[in-house]
Amino acid sequence: MDKIDAPLTIHVYLEGEFPAEFKRLQIETRQFLEELQAKNTNIRFRFINPDNIREQLVKKGMMPSQLTVEEDGKLSEAIIFPWAEVSYGKKTELVSLLPNTIAKTQEAQLQNAVEKLEYSFANALHNITQKERQKIAVLAGNGELQDIYQYSLLSEVGKKYRLAKFTLDSVASNPQKTLKDLRAYDLAIIAKPTERFTEEEKFTVDQFITNGGKSLWMIDNNYADTDSLYNEGKMLAFPRDLNLTDLLFGYQVRVNNKLIQDLYAAKIPLATGNVGNQTQFQHLNWFYHPLVNGNPYHPITKNVLPVRFRFTTQIDTLKGNLKKTPLLVTSVLTKKIGTPNFVELQSIAKEPQENEFAAGPQLLAVLLEGNIPSAYKNRIKPFNTPDFIPESGTNKMIVIADGDIGSNQILKGKPHDLSLDKWTGEQFGNNFRRLWIDSTT
Predict the structure, then answer these.
(1) Helix 106-115 and helix 117-129, axial crossing angle in degrees, nearest 10
(2) Three-state SS annotation for 171-232
(3) CB-side exposure of 423: number of CA atoms within 13 Å?
(4) Which of 340, 383, 409, 436 has the greatest number of CB atoms lying within 10 Å of its CB?
């Protein structure tokens, strides 16, 4: 709000005749904008009837919403344009006032829209007042996710940030230059590394963090080959040595190796028989894919759809000066499976015994905030750097105990929407940018 030092105009297309229950959205939006205007008089807003300018709005990308209206026991359809257009200088941002969501009723959809008003406008104001886009390094060189599996998430992220792949391979030949180059970025994404990190690579990441770089870790601490699970009916899950335990330990977290099962889980499709020549599929709960609600008391995860994890482990937090906020926590009905261990597909047919799922809530994603200490503060440095930094200033880091949380499926050779399962059609909160990126930058 303080950055707005010139007239900023907001046009809201919630005027005219529309269902009575959506008058509430109009009223709530008006009240919120009045609050913004009271904080900064450069903000001006106007409500406009879209009836005569529908074609213009559609060309700008504001698609209408079709609602079902019940009057005198009869159902009819109504078209509204739940959009706002924010203009500041030569920049324009669109704000959806009725975001896509899974809601059983229009009333629930409306409630969700009202709750997201603050975030929707705050995000637009942030974007429109940014003079330079922040830079994100997508780390490579340690067997991270291939580009096609990160497409859904990164294509969304790329709308707001500058993205670049950054390989740590050059650390071996020129560590000082690699560290200098990495420090030019605001955030580093480490997405499902599968190969062991060298001490030089870890030190480079460590000094990026203590220099103020934000970081998002998506870590698979177990090897789990789902192809063999489907092809052979079972797979061996066993610990993966990434050589990151001591590094994360220095940041006061530990990603463990035990697999987590949860009775609240996403579904997977299984062939259950044939009718004629047609194979019949049934969608069954797969307890190795926990379906996890976000922390409702933190703005990062408030109102986010349930997030799907796949063969996740669990996180311990350690004592220290950092503030640790749980972002994603399982239900209380969980079970820990030690590794190495076989995971068998036929186990899906067994009736779960609730008394076996008594491990309680498990932490799967955590936000760390504060002055992050270097994991090499009292250790021999892998290479000499003239400006070793023992502790960062105020910084942020997210650690997630699942490398596939940001990995989209592939459908007909093309990346599928991360928020949708290509087989079951279930919708998840995995592709919500504010959860993974906006919270840390």
Answers:
(1) 40
(2) HHCCHHHHHHHHCCCCEEEEECCCCCCCHHHHHHHHHHHHCCCEEEEECCCEECCHHHHHHH
(3) 11
(4) 436
333 near 366, Cβ under 8 Å?
Answer: no
If one counts every other C-beta atom within 10 angstroms of the C-beta of residue 120, the result is: 19
Residue 42: which residues within 8 A CB-CB, separation 6 or more?
4, 5, 6, 7, 8
Question: What's the rounded Cα separation, in Å, for the pair 376 and 203?
Answer: 7
User: Facing residues of 342 across strands?
Assistant: 236
Residue carrying the six token digits 């502790």: 391
Q: How far apart are CA 235 and CA 251, in angstroms?
A: 32
Phi, psi of 293 (to 5 degrees): -80, 150
Tokens of 367: 């936000």
Q: How is residue 434 annotated by DSSP?
A: I
Q: Are 273 and 349 in contact (CB under 8 A)?
A: no
Short-list 418, 421, 432, 268, CA closest to 365: 432
Which structure tokens are listed for 156?
């969304």
Query: Helix, strand or coil for residue 120?
Result: helix
Mean pLDDT, consecutive 10-residue stretches, the chain (441 aa), reads 92 85 88 95 95 92 79 71 93 87 68 86 89 92 96 89 94 94 96 97 97 97 86 92 97 97 93 69 92 89 88 96 97 97 91 94 97 95 93 97 95 93 90 64 64
pTM as predicted: 0.84
Q: What angle do CA 376, 380, 386 make, to 5 degrees?
A: 80
Interstrand relation of 391-400 and 214-218 (parallel, antiparallel or unpaired): parallel
Residue whose C-alpha is closest to residue 62's, from 46, 87, 80 = 80
Supply the Cα-derived Rg of the chain in whole angstroms.
Answer: 24
Q: What does the alpha-carbon distance between residue 151 and residue 39 come to, in Å, rounded to a whole number?
A: 39
Specify the pLDDT at position 434.
Answer: 58
**Angstrom distance (rounded) from CA 305 to CA 116:** 13
Between CA 319 and CA 441 the distance in angstroms is 25
Eight-state DSSP code of residue 358: -
In this structure, the number of other CB atoms found within 10 A of the CB of residue 307 comes to: 26
